[in-house]
Amino acid sequence: MALIVQKYGGTSVGSIERIQTVAARVKRSRDQGDQVVVVVSAMSGETDRLIGLAREIQERPVPRELDVLLSTGEQVTIALLSMALEAAGCPARSYTGAQVHILTDSAHNKARIRDIDAARVGADLDAGRVVVVAGFQGVDELGNITTLGRGGSDTSAVAIAAALKANECQIYTDVDGVYTTDPRVEPKARKLDRITFEEMLEMASLGSKVLQIRSVEFAGKYRVPLRVLSSFGEGDGTLITFEEDIVEEAKISGIAFSRDEAKLTVLGVPDQPGVAYQILGPIADANIEVDMIIQNIAAQEATTDFTFTVHRNDFPRALEILDQTAAHLGARQVLGDTGIVKISLVGVGMRSHAGIASLMFSTLANEGINIRMISTSEIKISVVVDEKYLELGVRALHAAFGLDGSTSSSSLS
Amino acid sequence: MALIVQKYGGTSVGSIERIQTVAARVKRSRDQGDQVVVVVSAMSGETDRLIGLAREIQERPVPRELDVLLSTGEQVTIALLSMALEAAGCPARSYTGAQVHILTDSAHNKARIRDIDAARVGADLDAGRVVVVAGFQGVDELGNITTLGRGGSDTSAVAIAAALKANECQIYTDVDGVYTTDPRVEPKARKLDRITFEEMLEMASLGSKVLQIRSVEFAGKYRVPLRVLSSFGEGDGTLITFEEDIVEEAKISGIAFSRDEAKLTVLGVPDQPGVAYQILGPIADANIEVDMIIQNIAAQEATTDFTFTVHRNDFPRALEILDQTAAHLGARQVLGDTGIVKISLVGVGMRSHAGIASLMFSTLANEGINIRMISTSEIKISVVVDEKYLELGVRALHAAFGLDGSTSSSSLS
Predict the structure, then answer these.
(1) Are A391 and A410 in contact (CB under 8 A)?
(2) Tell me, what DSSP letter sits at residue A62?
(3) B238 labelled binding-site residue
């Protein structure tokens, strides 16, 4: 008998009919002899509806009260799913985050889980009940309701799985697993049976929005086997696991990309210690996250050129700040470019294998794609190229690194 | 500085605009120097929407889970009202029933309050905050969410007022007080400045649906001064208080009536001990509440006629049960009548004053109204008459007992 934590997102519980479908699936797991804890999100659209009500009152709602408001979304779902399970003949009991003591810090709207009291849930499981827990929410030490921020239900599920020492944490979503790249860009993209936590982290942060990144970190830290699978179809999905469990020697697991990048460059900055800090400090102070950073000796003597990328939404503000900084530093010129994308190769095999970078660069060169920036990490190589080359670049790399599957798929929606 | 508990019902918080209006009113009380605890219901329509969702799954939703579901309604309101108060510059903090430990028994959907932990609320009040508490809900000893049943927010407010030893519990509603009778029937109806708890209980149970009856009982038991007033208009409403505080010597406070009655009669029942029990036992077993009961010696020797009234909704089922009982007892005939109404005079002064009954009967006789049944209590006389005489009867009695006001009013909606 295994103990399984299953998490269903907002789309999977978006209507009474879908809640009943989820109930049937949960019941099937339990009928197979497994103990099941279900973690659910708010019905799709509900969180936005509640935020809309709050915004009618305050442009920036009081964080504590916003959490009281938003946490009702998941509470509605746990009650309805428990009813649907009971109606299907499967004993069930619902719990809010407060009721199972999902203890968090007091950072309203983006709280972090500190501890979970698994005792109550254990008693229900032993009594043969399915336990349905509200994701996304917790309580702080004073009993105030907190929420974990968007996508926090994934983290709730992993935290509960860790606390209960569950055999597996299954994240049901609207895709049937993790793919070598986005099938909408490369129809030959192949579903991966397994991927390591580190690879998944790189894939997630690079735009494969299958799992919330914090939940992957959490699962890796507490060594909770995590599986992504479809709540609508069948199949075993993708297991996210530890490096030692991966037998095949694939060099590259997948190709991630991001259309949300924008590039900023300051030309001719006097080359002196502290320049990077002087340029990036004001950007960080404005809460703008910087992704890639490159500094080069400039053509002109005793000066340097400095380039970095930000999220495209932050571009106008970043440019404004940079203009001020450049004037202050006596830099020659500021350039901005929003017509770029980032393509990344991800794979733990990269560590032990030279030549991946050169194959990547030659593949792109053969297609006539000019590389604007390069950045590397232990298990990732990212390049920035002109936006128009995104599809061409991804497909060429997908083929060059032997990722093409035999059958095409387009189930990533 | 007084400590006031204010309760606003679903209509008063039925939209963001109305919530803002309530916030302005609460702020005004606080600005006058009072400490204010606000108890709110779900936004009007929300509870029905949630019940509708549950019914799509189960005709009779699991009671425990229905409470988890329904309690979100008030939780939404407390968050929004707290935001509106903060937006208006009035520090506020919201609490669910669980958070202020409104301890109830475990009778889901109709729980009764056992205890309230006032400590947390007290600390907020001392810190100058308005405290906003979700009505209608609590928790049992195991931490399960419970609800008090429809109208339970009134009871929550009174219980909180009792626990905090509040100076007054104000129930804001869509009427501006308690009237001598329904102004839609008698435009000369007059708003009462004061009424005793006992009179209010009789008025409430007889169809003046201003306050939930349990909350009036509760207020009487814990001696919480209760005031009914309009959340839309101004004015001091009606204070519900103790007999010793009432100075005027009004014999009759008001005239209540009910259109929801139906009458059942068994003719020619053998007159033997236990007949009343044999007739009413099966009715009670079917959970049908019986109101008035009359037993008379029948014209035929050694038999008796037995008459009682039930709610009109229960009439078909009661008639069916009574037919079976009558056959079993060897009774002569069963009669049913749904074309009746009940009119009641209510007033504590009645106790010390003979002649009220005779003035009532003669007034009705002068209008040619035939009395079908009579029932009396310490502070009430009720008569059953034909439905068509309702308006005529109420108006004639209103005049005969000197209740007519100088100005007409029609604010009871």
Answers:
(1) no
(2) -
(3) no
Residue B251 labelled as part of a binding site: no
| Of the partner residues B50, B82, B98, the one whose CB lies closest to the CB of residue A62 | B82
Pick the residue from chain B with its C-alpha nearest to A142: B99
Distance CA B108, CA B136 (A): 12
Chunked into runs of 10 residues, chain B (413 residues) has average pLDDT values of 94 96 95 96 95 96 97 98 97 96 94 88 94 97 91 90 94 88 88 88 69 84 91 88 66 88 91 84 89 77 86 93 93 93 88 78 92 85 93 95 64 35
**Tokens (6 digits) for B369:** 């109204």
A21 in contact with chain B, both atoms CB, cutoff 8 A: no
**DSSP SS3 for A394:** helix
Query: Residue B83 in contact with residue A54, Cβ under 8 Å?
Result: yes
**Exposure string for B41-57, b = 16+ CB within 10 A, e = fewer:** bbbbebbeebeebbebb
- In the predicted model, what is the mean pLDDT of residues A92-110? 95
Could you give the domains of chain B? 3-174 (3.40.1160.10)
A43 in B contact zone (CB under 8 Å): no
Q: Does A93 touch chain B (CB under 8 A)?
A: yes
Position A182: which residue type? Answer: D
| Beta strand B261-270 pairing with B303-311 | antiparallel
Residues of chain A contacting residue B93, judged by C-beta atoms under 8 Å apart: 64
The answer to whether B194 and B175 have CB atoms below 8 angstroms apart is no
Q: Judge if pTM exceeds 0.90.
A: no
Distance CA B225, CA A141 (A): 36
Contact (Cβ atoms closer than 8 angstroms) between residue B170 and residue B159: no
Q: Is A273 helix (H, G, I), strand (E, B) or coil?
A: coil
Q: Residue B209: its pLDDT value, please?
A: 65
* Residue A210 assigned ligand-binding role: yes
Strand pairing category for A3-8 and A168-173:
parallel
Q: SS3 of B411, please? A: coil
The span from the CA of B20 to the CA of B1, in Å, is 25
Sign of the dihedral defined by the CA atoms of residues A247, A252, A254, A260, in that order: positive
Distance CA A267, CA A326 (A): 9
**B65–A84 CB contact, under 8 Å:** no
Report the residue from B53, B82, B94 with minimal CB separation from A16: B53
Backbone angles phi, psi at B216, to 5 degrees: -70, -45
Residue with tokens 């236990």: B274
Separation of alpha carbons B320 and B234, rounded Å: 50
Count contacts between A and B (CB, < 8 Å): 101
- ipTM of the modeled complex: 0.78
Q: A409 pLDDT exceeds 50?
A: no
Cβ of B79 and A56 within 8 Å? no
The per-residue pLDDT for range B238-260, each reduced to its tens digit, is 999 887 665 556 678 899 998 88
Q: Which amino acid is at A74?
A: E
CB atoms within 10 A of CB B187: 13
Per-residue model confidence as pLDDT tens digits over A15-53: 999 999 999 999 999 999 999 999 999 999 999 999 999
Looking only at the bridges linking them, the beta strands covering A168-173 and A137-139 are unpaired
**A142: closest CA of chain B, how far (Å):** 10
> Which residue is listed with tokens 């979970």?
A116
Distance CA B57, CA A23 (A): 11
User: Whole-angstrom Cα distance, residue A340 to residue A346?
Assistant: 20
List of residues 6+ apart from A362 with CB closer than 8 A: none
A273 touches chain B (CB under 8 A): no
C-alpha angle B309-B312-B317 in degrees, rounded to nearest 5: 85
